[in-house]
Here is the input.
Amino acid sequence: MTVRPAISISGLHKRFGDNEVLRGIDLTANDGDVISLIGSSGSGKSTLLRTIPMLEVPNGGTIAVGDDSLSPQGGKLTHAEEVVARRIRGHLGFVFQNFNLWPHRTVLQNVIEAPIFVQKRPRAECVDEAMALLEKVGLAEKRDAWPAHLSGGQQQRVAIARALAQHPRAILFDEPTSALDPELVGEVLKVIGSLAEEGRTMLIVTHEMGFAREVSSRAIFLNKGIVEEDGPPEQVFVNPVSERCRAFIRGHFDRNR
Here is the structure.
């Protein structure tokens, strides 16, 4: 039996009005890959990530997650395609920049919401697993807290536990530390690093270049909606082929000396 890639993207295009943000992206993520998506603001990184679960609907190309695939046209989904999109979302965990926790639900309720009401799993099983996940991210004692009473770093760790609770084949991180105060960044990166060590499949949009170099199995540099560099971190961060990638990496590390 052939095992399909966790995520496969071919010829992906996305535009907003006259602005073509993605211009023919090809990308494959196998199980266990940790892929960092890097590039300047406006290069298409977050848009690319958001097209995978159809939070942004492409204008062309094909996206497959496991055995489910979609090739939408014109930036809209038909009714039949929306059914497939829901299945695709069920295979993915998504961690947003701004946490997106339910403010009217406690930490525990946030983590068990999708497993109980979307996946229809037994409540007791979901609660037990949620508590184990909150322990993993260092927040078991906050199970009954409201999101507004947590720091940004704590909210993001809850969001990671919520994503894990869905048993995703892959987790998508959209700049998970960009909304955090600098002193809180490390606690979130530590959790993501531990997931990488476990062999979780992850796509991470990030500006944390040192972290990306350390945890990634692959790094992809996007520029103006195309993939300009794709390879192991020792190539992309140390000896990139693309001059634009070389300038981007050099500029980042020069600024942070």
